[in-house]
């Protein structure tokens, strides 16, 4: 059970509070094209304003690789955040991030005011968790708040290094929510607990499968990774995505599931295509009977039904990875069916970030889910049962 101190456990009146947010938003020509991450950060910022802190926000944006790349400045974020908060967020433009400009801006702050520092990755030390930049960040504040779940699986200056040089390091509301759902709900779920895994490769989800097999009642595997399991069971997979080297592993996992009494559901039919394209010829075939020259790009209708039925009686469902090449509309049906089933079940539904989160949001089911994680890589590491450095660095209760 993770029990970290949060913004509810501290008094910030008159104190300088450095808040690590995840403002890594998509920008096209300086315009923010998806502001979900800004909106998600508002509850913590509003709480700290209401408590009378001096709020210093920081984040990375893209990969400027240690250089002050103008197109990756956080300036547009300050403008949009001001509108969303209904209060000015002053942008502390400074190529050194914590240089003379930023320091002067912090010194001039009054209680309840908010400033935003420049992109932390303008500094090369940031991603190396370097001591000097960590100390510089810490020197700006009395209290540190980490609300950036998206980078919690990385140990960088602005989320981990800085905590070594401040007395108080707590988590924000967004981070707390992620810990509650992904950490505590997965480790102590209401049962039946069903996990749905999809996406391209078995190799990238090995630790997730292993960890979840110890916890779930039912494990559903769809998407590109299912063909390696199918091949391992002696099926023909045509030219579907296949990791031959992982067939033994897949067999071991099937055995492990049986030993543990975990129901492991794999596709019983697939939508196959004669080309990797939306306009390819396609048909439905039984799993393991994919003709040469054809590839599986989605789960078939019988599989959809089995997967969706498994979700109906569940009390907790975790989903990571699409059921097929959902980017192509003709092969998105299986992913859509699963999203709909999750939207309709009474269960607690937790969506790992990345593609499944995007699919759920695009289909308009976002508000029907209990929790959609804001971090793709970070949520996957949580599901692997790993301790995330960004979470570990916060003070325990
Ligand atoms: P991941 O990042 O591992 O979750 O993989 C997501 C990607 O897997 C998406 O871009 C999907 O298009 C792709 N994918 C899912 N199913 C298949 C499939 N049957 N064949 C090829 N790619 C797939």
List its salient traits.
single chain; 6-stranded parallel beta sheet; 397 residues; binds adenosine monophosphate; 18% strand; alpha/beta
Note down, in words, how this protein is organized.
With 397 residues, the protein is an alpha/beta fold. Helices cover 33% and strands 18% of the residues. The chain contains 13 helices and 19 strands. Strands 5-6-4-1-7-8 form a six-stranded parallel sheet. Strands 12-10-9-17-18-19 form a six-stranded parallel sheet, sandwiched between helices. Strands 14-13-16 form a three-stranded antiparallel sheet. A hairpin with an 8-residue loop joins strand 13 (269-273) and strand 14 (282-286). The relative contact order is 0.13. The model has no long low-confidence stretch (mean pLDDT 95). Residues 199-201, 204, 223-224, 241, 296-297, 321-322, 324-325, 327, 354-355 line the site of adenosine monophosphate (AMP).
Find the count of extended strands (DSSP E, 2+ residues): 19
Quick one: biggest sheet?
6 strands, parallel
Q: Oligomerization state of this entry?
A: single chain
Chemical compounds bound to the protein = adenosine monophosphate
Helix count equals: 13
Spatial shape: elongated
Structural class: alpha/beta
Portion in helices? 25-40%
Average pLDDT, all residues: 95
